[in-house]
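Reopening this ticket.

The earlier resolution said the output was attached, but the attachment link was broken on my side. Pasting everything inline this time so it's all in one place.
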Amino acid sequence: MQVNQSSVEAVEQAKKKQEEAEKQARQEEYQIEREKNRADMEIQRARRKAKSEIADMKENQFFWDWGYLCVIFFSFLQNGAFQQDVLQLIMIPINWCKEYIAWFERLEYISDTAGEMLFKGFFSMLMITAGILGCVFLVWAGVEQYKKIWDDLYKMVLISSISFVAVLGNLIREYLPLNLILVILFINIGTILLRAYLKKKYPQMYD
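Inline output:
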């Protein structure tokens, strides 16, 4: 009987220890779950705060960007030289069209035969179409290539060159008889070529 009672007590003690171990394990799991939930809440709170700060930064950047663009725009409005250059650039294809129309109207009188007139008219239209398509392709290819190398440096150079021409366009025109739009293009193309040269000459600087 004594042996059986000892065995029963040992079993009960083992059960109690097992229950205590299970209880402790449940408490630890609960503690871990609570800490995990707390960490998730902190992460969500930090994300919401970061999103709010990013949204504020974007809003401020949007405000200052548009403000800067407005300043450049009004500078262009006050810049008579730049307005003349833009108008001159717009008038170039218009004048070409006028000259072509005038030439086409005289084509009947400067051609010896009807076949020659048709050939000249068709050939001229074909060449003009090819020229327009070629220009469009060159512009598209240039834009695509520029997108590949576009970064903060080129953005800064573009904005700086436009600002430079917008503010000092009239002064530049007094000393440099060149279309101001070409000045902007030359500055940016020069920057691209200079950077390509430096990248080839000193590749370790761009690693």
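Reporter confirms the inline version is readable. The two ends are 86 Å apart (CA to CA). The helical segments are 2-78, 80-110, 114-149, 152-175, 180-201.
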